[in-house]
Here is the input.
Amino acid sequence: MSKEDETETVTFEELGVVKPLCSAIDACGWKTPTEIQKLAIREAIAGRDVVGLAETGSGKTGAFAIPILQALLADPGRLFAVVLAPTRELAFQINDVFVSLGAPISLQTACVTGGVDMMSQAIKLAKKPHVLICTPGRLVDHLENTKGFSLRSVRFLVLDEADRMLSMDFEEEINKILGVLPKERRTLLFSATMTSKVAKLQKASLSDPVKVEVSHKFQTPKQLLQQYLFLPAKWKDCYLVYLLDHFKEQTAILFVATCNNALRTTLTLRNLGFQAVCLHGQLSQAKRLGALNKFKAGQRNILVATDVASRGLDIPNVDLVLNLDIPSNGKDYIHRVGRTARAGKSGRSVAFVTQYDVEAYQRLETMLGKKLDVFPTQEDEVLIFEERVTEAQRLAMKELKEMQDMGEGVRGKSSRGNKRRMGGDGEGGGGDGKSNVFKPNKKTFNKAMSRGKR
Ligand code: AMP
Here is the structure.
């Protein structure tokens, strides 16, 4: 497809989508197809297996849901499609899209993930929904333990966020599922990146696929204003409060490295009167969804999250992303800041760089191929908050201890086996625990930067 074709405005109808489905799409407020939808829908409707390289936020769910619904309309059947997704949250989101698009045709779906009891899921499966959205581990559990349940009638398989499923060690489960699916089926594979494992999976599961791509590795949206803040680790919370106070009308996601730090930061912010909720991999499924829903519904404007929330979650209208901890992996940074400045809207991200993060930050700038602007602050204005922040931190530590005593806190180091259940971010451990203090002026920063370069 030529560049010109890629940018032309087409309608869903022109892509070959049938009228009843176009009305359902319209009712979702989707006026024209996104880039990945333009490329993938046409091919999938034409009957091809598709490999789509696209990230969350690109509209990829519609890119596979629309052709599946169209095929279902043409030839109705039960347990018609299975969608595999790496996390419970993503599975629920995909389910929501199918439910919205399928409302006019009385589509029945089931979302089957871990963290929910098997029996109630078995009842749903016995009703044979049209579309089944699952995390791989739970689907295998049902294949092995739920009487009468099979995937014999499946005609469409979707592997969503394949790179992430494979990096979360779901390979064995996916292979088991592929082993029991009919060979005569269509497969749509979506992935943010084409890793060697994804290429292997593609070979094993797709037949003569067409490859469509819209993601550009390591690119951030043009409308995203990316900034950094150089600060002493000791005053991180103070700078955070200063920023949140500065942007108090805005919705923000704060990314931290560990579950423990997510909880500690949330408690500290709540003690200061901020409307913060926490999302990390050690929360129960109900609490994770509860937190996310409160944030989505606008009841809370601050979400403190580990990387479990950085990919795959559709959280609209986030104004601000704060990287309180610099991610060690550049791709995680891209996914984190990708929570703002979506669908043409503007947004801002601020990376908190302490004296300990200079090297990681430099690697990040090299990866991005550009220098970020500094977020301007006046130290004396920031430190106005110091006393209140210290008191809020003290209270938060007390609350954390009480929660630990009651068995509600965050566990320490996780085992590898926990990694998957915790959404891949199972690190425990404490907050920063570092106390070196120095003034974050330009001279110190430059010195630290040149030290880091050596
Ligand atoms: P996804 O990448 O599938 O998670 O979609 C990201 C967001 O884009 C979701 O909020 C969708 O509802 C929205 N979306 C998907 N397709 C379209 C479209 N064609 N026009 C406008 N919004 C869309």
Observations:
- The longest strand covers residues 224-230.
